[in-house]
Amino acid sequence: MTKQERCKKALDCHAGSLNCAQSVLSAFSDRIGLSDDQCYALCSGFGGGVRYGGLCGAVSAAVMVLGLLYPHTPKNGLQGKARSMKLTQEFQRRFRERFGELDCRELLRLHDLHGTAQTEALGVTAHCDILIVSATELLCDMLEELEKE
Fold first, then answer.
1. pTM of the model as a whole
2. Which of 1, 44, 61, 141 keeps 20 to 30 A from 36, CA to CA?
3. 55 pairs with which residues across the strands?
4. Which residues pair with 103 in a beta bridge?
């Protein structure tokens, strides 16, 4: 699946009444080995930053994808833990660099969001859709970089 196809899938999921975390996680269902329904179930309680009290759901889902693809397990021990934490921090850095925030409540207060190239390519203008598509694109870019390592 191309980056644009993943971003479009996330956008379509959100338009179909799924929350931001469900939308982002399901855009990577093929990569993480879960069905769309499993993605929806896993993230069903993550909407609205769990009602605006925390981390943006799109960011939470991206971190889940990273954890599923590059997990910390008892088998990989401290090395796996260090890599998992490093990847999580890097994604959060990239998202914060773009939007200045990770907190859902604060992101909702922002005006004039400037999304990624895919938001423009897909004609995305709605606030949360910009965050969803941008998170999906940032994660695609990060995964592509990791595959080249």
1. 0.94
2. 141
3. 103
4. 55
The predicted pLDDT at position 74 comes to: 95
Spatial CA neighbour of 60 closest among 16, 107, 114: 107
Distance of CA 146 to the CA centre of its chain: 16
> Tell me, what amino acid is at 13?
C
At residue 70, what are phi and psi to the nearest 5 degrees?
A: -135, 70
119-130 average pLDDT score: 95
> Quick check: 70 and 28 in contact, CB under 8 A?
no
How many residues are present in the chain?
149
Two tokens, residue 90: 């890097």
Q: 130, 115 in Cβ contact below 8 A? A: yes
